[in-house]
Structures are given as C-alpha cells and as structure tokens.
Design brief:
2 copies of one chain form a homodimer. By secondary structure, chain A is of the alpha/beta class. Chain A has 16 helices and 12 strands.
C-alpha cells in the first residue's frame, strides 16, 4: 500500500453557510424573517437575525486559503474566503485536491447545537430557520453530492419534543448524524445525566443515527483564569472529551441506550489509554461504590468501546497506543477549513503519522475510512467505484480540473472573487 | 535486577495529623487557641478550631487498614485507623513492610494549601497554628526519621509577604517542598498567571525547594453536572493536571522562573504525551499567536520538561510512552493511606507494571527513586547504606519486627487500639 492507495473519509469538516442558504428552503411568508447576510460599513459580512448580529462566520473558522500570518479573529467578507468554504461545488474540488472521498460537515453560523436559533426570541421563526438549515445542509449541500457527504443535522434544543420530531423528520430523508453539545449543563441546559434528553437520544437510536459532539462547544466546562491567553481554549479543548465521556459513561446514558453511538468530533485519541487505565482501575479498586452489575458485568472501558467513535487530525502518541484504545474506535478527520486542518497535504500528513506509528494496511483502512463508514452507516462505494475513491484517483481528477491550492492573502482573494462575482450578495 | 532490588521513594503520601501534634510547637499562651481534637457524642473525633469543626480527617483519607467493603466517607475515630496513619514510628514500620525507603507527606486536617488556617477568622492564631504545623511536620514527623522523609511545609496563602517569610523560615531548616494549590483562581485566590504569587515562587526558587501541587485541591476547575456521581471527582482529578500545566506553561510562570521546579503530585503521566503532541503542534501551527522567542526558542514541551516532575501510582499506558514524556520526568508514589494506595503490595504492583512496560533496570531506578531524589535534592544514602535501602532489605526488617499488614474491620481496630491506649485523647 502506498499513500495514494489510501481512502480518506473525514468525520469533521465545516461549512460556512452561504448567504443564499435559505433561498430554496423557506416559504415566502418567512423569507424576510430568517437570518440574512448584511455587509456593514467596514466591509464585514454579518448575519442578522431577530435584531441580533449573529456570529461572524469568518476569522479562525475559515482560514484555509490564507497564509498563517493572516490568521486571527478578524471578521471579514465572504469574498475574502477560499470559495470551498461556502460553495459545495468548490468544496468537492478542494476535497479532490486533498484526496478526500467523504466528509461530515458541521455548521458555523447556526452553531454546533443550533445556538443561533436556540437563543432567538421568536421560536416560531427559529424553528422555521432551523428546519431550513437542515433542509439546506442535508438536501442541498450534502444532497448535491451524496457520494461525497455524510449528511448531518441539528435539533431545536429549546424543546425536547420538537427535537424528537426533527430527529425523525431528518432521519426520514437519510440524515446520518445529529450535532449536539458536549456538556449541555454548562450552557444552562439540563445535563446528559438529568434524563431530559432521553426522548431525543431514543429517537436518534431508532433512526440509527450518530450523536456527534464537537469540541469547543463545551469549553466553559473549564473555569480558566481570567488572564488565560487564547492558547488555553485551543490547547485544552481536547481535554474536555474525557469530561464528556465521563458524563456519558458514569451517568446512565450509555448504559441506558445500548444502541447509542457517540462521535467525539475532533476530540483526539491520545487521552483515551490514560482514561481507560484510570476508569478501570477506579472501578475495580473502588468496588464499594459499584455493584458488579452497574456496568452489566463489563469494565467501564468496555462500555465506552461499545458506543464511542474517537477522532483525530494529528495524534502520534495516541496512534502508538491504538491497541490499548481499540483499533475499531479510531477515525480520522481533516477539519477543513479551520486553522487545525492539514489541507491540502492531509494525505502526506496522515500517511507519515500512520507509518511512523507502524500501522498495518488493514489498520490504516480502519482508521481512515472503514470505522467511520460503519459507525455512520454510510457506504462509500454506493456511488463510487473503489478504484475511483483513492487519494491518487481523486487527486488526479483535481489535477485534470486545474484546482489551485495556493494560499493567498485575504485582499487578493477579495479582489479575485469579487471580480468573478463570488462571495458578493 | 529483581523486585527486591528496587529502591522506592514515594513523593506522595499523607499524614493524618495526630491529636497531640501542637503540643511541642505552640507557646503556652496559644495552647487553647490552636486546633484540638474533640470526640463528639457519636464517637467521631473532630478537629475544632475557632468555633468551626474542621475537616474530619478520616473516611476516604485513611482507609489503608480496612477491607474495601468498609471504605466510604463516614467519619470515625483515630482509634479505628491503622496507627501508621498518624504515628510516625508506626508509619516507618509500614514503609518497611512495603519496601519504601523515602516518603514525602501531605497534610490532611491542615489542607494541601493550609486551607484550615487560611479560612480561619483570627489570622494571628492561624499563623501560629500554621507555623506549628510546619514545625511538627518538618521537625517532629520528618525530623524523627530524616533518613525516611522528605520534609514538606505549607504557607499562609492569605498574605504573600507572610508566605515568603514562611518559605524562608522552613527553608532554613531543610524543608524541601511547599504544598500549594493546583488552580488557586478556582478557590478565589489570584491565579498563577496574575503575578500575585511571584514573590513566593521566587523565594521557593531561592531555597531550591519544589512547588508540589497535589490533585484534588483544584477539582472545582471542572463545572460538573449537579447529578455527577462521586466517580467524576475521583476519575477526573488527574485530568486537571493538564489544566494546571497549561496555566503554568502558557502563562508566564515557568518562563519567568527558570529555576522553578513543580511536582504534579498524583497527577499521573499518561496524559503527557497527548498534551505534548497538542501543545507543540499548536505552537508551531498557530505561529501567528507567538513570536519565535516566546518560549526562548524552545518548544512548549521542552519548557515543560525543564520544570515538571510527573508522578503516578499506576499508569501502564503512560509507561509505554515514557520516551515521549522523558524518562527524567517520571516519579512514583504510594499514596498511603488513601484508597488509591497499593500498600502493602506496592513493590509487586510497581514491579509488574514496570516489567510489563519493558523498562530497563536503569529506567526503573530513575522512576522509582533517582528522579525524585534529584528533583527534591534529597540524598537517600546520606544516612542509609545503599544495600539497606532496597525493598528486600526493608521488608526483611519489617518481618523481623513482626509488622502485621492484615486488613481489619474498623470495629476491630477500635477495640484493639483503645485497649492499647492508641488513638485515644
């Protein structure tokens, strides 16, 4: 096996929702009520919704086209972005250039947990907008290339009955995953342990979907010093996956829903062997705390393994201990278009790391696509011949199409894109 | 090398301060003002201080003599405890029986960070009590067996000038370590990043002492769900060491004090390779955040290695990746008399784990004593011939002395001890 023979399915990338996302998915009477992009006097594109200027979708979230010196939190305009951030046709070309067959995408403006809609005052409009987001994400974005995207939706967190309804609605049209919060109790919602989310979790199980918990959403679970630099958030975000796992594993959730599948998106894998050592030693040593049947006669690590998919961009230490984690738990991700992405050298980056860790061909296939496809019940070869799915085949296609992966300054993107009518309202 | 050839120096054990601890260390006028033990109507020994009943020092903190079925948070009496918890002569016998040459001890009633005195209203009495604690811990407990204990003190957190003074006072009599808080900002103190503690840290460096940060004290750094079981605290405590390291490493502390030595007591080691991967990738990838000289031309992991001693009871995954951590950073601990201790089978437990990880003899010596002794500047052979320092030699001494390591029910301890006048006021 060579690098070009790899098949890459990334279970964590991001869409920058385009300004016209709602066009095909909102009845006429709501057209003016859903979020819309407004360019302000400083030339910054902002999403306006119910009197709020919602999250500027740029800066750190869409740096993929820029030189590192231009990264930062400065907001900007759509036209400054590499178009693959928001245009699905361009995205697929960027996936080709990076040798990536399949991708699961998370929202940006909408928030990992539909925050923008959950925080809105008018819940009728919020629900219309959320459903329109899902229709766009599933039918339009992923639906344009069902051979390339694993469809994912979000749910109305403000009403668990509505959440159940939305899980069933998107499940019916083939959605494979629901993006949710790592630690809902930190944002003022009931915790996973509370039982509040059980009807939703039950519906997700019924639909054979995955609960995807992306890092970052739960960052406030750590009380950091007021002087902490931004590095804290960026470095420690992965540590929170262990805290999330603890809530699910030592609360009733995983044991109560034997079919529940949870992906810890961007959570890394290197923390898992240490966590397994700790929970299994704790469980066997502190036997006064637990009856033998608390975990169904299993060790906590065994229950974890039955439910969790762990996912990494780069994780050399974790790969060395893959046998202690369980080779079937590991998935890979690209994180396009965030700063942590390895695009457009993901194959080189991943191949080197997998080789350095001494992974066999069989292990590489499990990590780079097999585990993800099994977990999300997504058949990568339903519409693609296997020989067309490899890094080499996809990159050849990108070369033939002349995809340019050069990083360019924001100002240059802006000039080029606006001249071509790209990223302008 | 065989198991009996190991030399064990544990840098994390605990004293249950005995009722008579203040007797030799408080001037007559303060005798009635310092904490004292009072047995209540339920037969529970409580420390009374300034109208407060301070932490009951038993339950989970002193289970070493009991069967697992009797572990728990129930308070009790001194007479229910294995006397090695509070009697230094018995403690040394228990160390012999477990093959342990040297030990660094943390306070219980006083609190890792002198909490009992810091929270007291009358700060004059608090300071008298704190100094008496230090004199007892250093001169009486450790001083009775300078060949067996690495002396450690605590400091008055309520006044940084007094803290500096106390560091110098205990430094002058050979104290090797100061026990402090992992995440002081969580308890309402200024954070490590604030600069507030700099004079104290500077004094600790001057005295060539170690700043020992024990897990548990900073647990509230994690906002856990209200429904979280006690397992959360016990499992996740080690995860906080990464958060503590982050505060010290990405704040100015470690770089500002090139001579500062920090021991992450009971923090485990398995999280470190993952943390190193993360911080070094973050640092090199997010170059816009840091000038090249921010870490003196070094990687964050290199700065960590220059300052930190990491410490474990059991950590099979971490040991497998010892080369990625740095063999000189690793120390071992026994955690007597807490529930997590491996007493009285620590040599068997550690030997198996070290062998399973494929450690060489040289690596075993570094992990079990050399690193700790170098870091704390404590010469294990100053008063002990090397051939008398081994597991085999110490256990032979315990056998000759007839030390009984049998676990016994609390009621049985109480009966036996009280009949012998042990653990009664």
């Amino acid at each position: 096996m060579q690098m070009d023979d790899m098949i890459l399915v990334s279970i964590d990338d991001h869409m920058i929702e385009p300004p016209d996302m709602f066009e095909n998915h909102v009845p006429e009477k709501w057209k003016d009520s859903v979020p819309r992009v407004v360019r302000n006097d400083a030339g910054v594109d902002e999403w306006h919704f119910q009197g709020e200027k919602t999250s500027t979708p740029f800066g750190m979230a869409a740096t993929v086209g820029w030189p590192k010196s231009e990264w930062g939190f400065n907001p900007g305009s759509y036209s400054e972005l590499r178009p693959g951030c928001f245009d699905v046709h361009e995205r697929v070309k960027d996936m080709d250039a990076n040798g990536i067959l399949g991708s699961l995408n998370f929202p940006t403006m909408a928030g990992f947990n539909a925050r923008t809609f959950t925080e809105a005052g008018d819940k009728e409009v919020a629900l219309v907008s959320l459903r329109a987001y899902n229709d766009w994400a599933i039918d339009e974005w992923a639906g344009s290339y069902p051979d390339r995207f694993i469809p994912q939706g979000i749910i109305p967190m403000w009403d668990v009955d509505l959440a159940v309804e939305e899980v069933r609605r998107v499940g019916a049209k083939g959605c494979r995953s629901i993006s949710f919060l790592e630690t809902p109790h930190v944002q003022g919602f009931p915790s996973f342990l509370s039982g509040h989310w059980d009807p939703m979790l039950s519906a997700i199980c019924d639909e054979n979907m995955v609960l995807s918990l992306h890092i970052g959403a739960g960052f406030e679970v750590i009380r950091r010093p007021q002087e902490a630099p931004i590095d804290h958030l960026m470095v420690l975000a992965c540590q929170i996956s262990a805290i999330t796992a603890q809530d699910l594993l030592f609360g009733p959730t995983l044991r109560q829903f034997p079919d529940l599948k949870v992906a810890l998106s961007e959570g890394g894998i290197g923390w898992i062997p240490f966590y397994f050592d700790r929970i299994d030693r704790h469980f066997t040593n502190q036997e006064w705390l637990h009856g033998g049947e608390d975990f169904g006669g299993k060790l906590p690590s065994e229950v974890f393994r039955e439910h969790i998919l762990a996912c990494f961009i780069t994780d050399p230490s974790g790969l060395l201990l893959r046998d202690r984690i369980g080779i079937d738990l590991l998935a890979w991700e690209c994180d396009y278009p965030h700063t942590d992405t390895t695009w457009p050298e993901s194959p080189e980056f991943a191949w080197k790391e997998l080789q350095d860790a001494g992974c066999t061909d069989e292990e590489i296939h499990k990590i780079t696509w097999e585990n993800a496809c099994r977990f999300f019940s997504w058949d990568p070869f339903a519409r693609t011949a296997r020989e067309d799915a490899t890094v080499g085949a996809l990159r050849a296609r990108a070369t033939a199409a002349g995809v340019d992966v050069t990083r360019k300054p924001r100002a240059e993107w802006k000039q080029e894109n606006e001249a071509a009518g790209i990223g302008v309202a």
